[in-house]
Specification:
Elements: H1 3-14, H2 20-27, H3 31-43, E1 63-69, H4 76-84, E2 89-94, E3 101-107, H5 110-120, E4 126-130, H6 146-153
Antiparallel strand pairs: 1-3, 1-4, 2-3
Helix pairs in contact: 2-3
Domain HTH asnC-type: 1-62
GO molecular function, one term: sequence-specific DNA binding
Keywords: DNA-binding, Transcription, Transcription regulation
């Protein structure tokens, strides 16, 4: 991956709907050349998809929470299909520490969150933190600057 690929990735993380013509102007290549690079980045798994960022509050999801869960490894086969089917689960991560699973969820109300936690407790103990505010919203990966990449190569 060269500096042009990194610039394309940074631009797409900023706005995945930038027209090819705009991207091409930013990296000083033709639109077909940029399109070919994007296709190569997709095929190699660097770019995994394109998503719209939405505001959960405007959609009626006023409660965002992180739920930690102790999960016996023997229950993973039953738990993963369950949690995958829950549309309110935004993320499910297997983590180190006192708890083995960390979920990020969004719900319209604390009552619905409470009901969901009740279902989770069939798999283990939970600890929940409700989000009051978010100082840093989800964002893209910062790619190393070209100068840093050159230093690493030396």
């Amino acid at each position: 991956m060269d500096k042009i690929d990194k610039k394309i990735i940074a631009l797409l993380q900023e706005n995945a709907r930038y027209p090819l013509k705009y991207l091409a102007q930013q990296v000083y290549l033709s639109s077909p050349a940029v399109s070919a690079r994007i296709e190569r980045l997709e095929k190699s798994g660097v770019i995994t998809g394109y998503h719209a960022a939405v505001d959960p509050i405007t959609l009626g999801y006023h409660i965002t929470a992180f739920i930690n869960l102790t999960l016996d490894p023997k229950q993973k086969g039953e738990f993963y299909p369950f949690v995958t089917e829950c549309p309110n689960v935004l993320e499910c991560n297997c983590v180190t520490g006192m708890y083995s699973i960390m979920l990020k969820v969004a719900f319209p109300s604390t009552m619905e969150l409470d009901t969901f936690i009740g279902h989770l407790q069939q798999y283990g103990n939970t600890q929940t933190q409700i989000v009051f505010s978010t100082a840093v919203p989800p964002r893209g990966i910062k790619l190393p600057e070209e100068e840093e990449s050159e230093k690493e190569e030396r």
